[in-house]
Amino acid sequence: MASRAPVATGRLLIGFRKWYYNLAGFNKLGLMRDDTLYEDSDVAEALRRIPENQYNDRVFRMKRALDLSMKQQILPKEQWTKFEEDVQYLSPYLKEVIQERKEKEEWMKN
Amino acid sequence: MKGIRGISQLSRHFHVAARTRQSLAHPLAGLKLSPGAAHSLKDIHVTRLPSGLVIASLENYSPASKIGVFVKAGCRYETPENQGVTHILRLASSLTTKGASSFKICRGVEAVGGSLSVTSSRENMVYTVDCLRDDFDTVMEYLINVTTAPEFRAWEVSDLTPRVKRDKAQAAHSAQIGVIEALHEAAYKNALTNSLYCPNHMVGNITSGHLHQFVQNNFTSARMALVGLGVDHEVLTQVGEQFLNIRSGAGTTGAAAQYRGGEVRMPGLGSLVHSAVVSESAVVGSDEALTFSVLQHILGAGLHVKRGSCTSSKLVQGVTKATADPFDVSAFNANYSDSGLFGVYTISQPAATGDVIKAALAEVKAVADGNVTAADLTRAKAQLKSQVLMSLETSEGLLDAMGSQALAEGSYSSTDEVSTNIDNVSLTDVANAAKKFVTGKKTMASSGNLKNTPFVDEV
Q1: Which chain B residues touch A103 with a CB distance below 8 Å?
Q2: CA-to-CA distance for B305 and B284, rounded, in angstroms?
Q3: Are strands B273-280 and B340-348 parallel, antiparallel or unpaired?
Q4: Considering A68, A101, B245, B372, which has the largest number of Cβ atoms within 10 A of its Cβ?
Q5: Could you confirm whether the keyword Membrane appears in this record (chain A) (predicted)?
Q6: For residue A49, is pLDDT > 70?
Q7: DSSP code at position B441
Q8: Closest CA in chain A for residue B158
Q9: Could B155 and A100 be called an inter-chain contact, meaning their C-beta atoms sit closer than 8 Å?
């Protein structure tokens, strides 16, 4: 399987991923990918755990994006979030939360 | 036929002979024991590893094992910057570690029917696991994780704050805890002045960093003892060598406790006044400490017969003459590694407190002046011996005794040694100990309706 379909993080697919990122368009509102995640219980728990400065930055970005959306505007091109700058700040915590939940479910099974 | 029947009767005869002649409680005479067999005799074995870790164990062939990790990390080692860190640490035993998540520790220990608990005193912190003998490996894995590799995740630590508040609220219900914490606060300038409970200004302000730093500085091999009941000494030594050798060195040395002698008064609405008047006494393990213990029993250290009239207690008899109202009085005795406190603890009605305290102190003065008979001394020694021996009857008491001694001295004194030392206390020793109390600088702590409670300079 892995030999036939190229791994998404491979050097070959960087161009495609960059194009798709820019097509998605949330970077024009100054958001990062992790800001756009649907806030289910796992994401909410992960948000409870991130350091305070990262949480405050997230709140700022979302507030700015909501403001722009209300005014039907987007940021000037220099301020768009670049693909290289997009940090998946929530992912490690989210992975941990999901792993803990799965561990609990494993124990509940038996 | 007859011959065969004769043979079976022969074996029966030998059986009976063996049973009546040889006791099965002692090894056969002239039998060479293999090296491993030495450890199977009911002895308390103590080994000190090169890293400073002390291993103590007793193979009592019990179906349940009890293992404790004793660390010299009590609240006396807290600094002004991290006051209350030991309270949080006490509650943090079930938090995520490098090897197991918080959920796994809880469920894992429960799954084998074991239990993991933490107690801490002013001197030591004790992590104890109970389990069935066969589940030793499973629970030891959790115990080692908790004591050597905790992660203290920031959100888990902040989730402990409600539990800290609940602990403090429960402690506030007990007047005795309040008085004893206040007594130590008033008696010392540092180290032993720290309370077992987190002070109000630090609730919610102890961070993961504080916990990590405290563990780094105090949970070192030289300050730990691994104690087991119902475990094999070799196995325990192996565990100690492999897993508890992570942090070497002596860690930060605690400050020597400086006695100052002060007073704390806690006015309240309670119908009873609790009051303790103490003076500095002896260091734990010294002969003087034993003398103070004997003095404690001469004066009266609690009821020996439930709902009885305590006729053997000098304090109770003295105070009965001073007041007709309900009261309670007993001698207070505490010993630490570099200091101790000895005195009287009274519980009385608000109006009678002054008389009660004065009568109690007069009784101690009487002992200092030599009003102790040999019969009193014998009785007190017997009471002390039985208290010591009975405390070793439970597995908790035995583990605690083994662990405290292993940590403080690196060895275990048998009950025979302790009995002999108690017997060696003389009448003059006791009188001198009482004189030390009478002439020493007093510390006092009182709580309740203090209208008639004397100040420390008035007793």
Answers
A1: 101, 103-104
A2: 28
A3: antiparallel
A4: B372
A5: yes
A6: yes
A7: P
A8: A49
A9: no
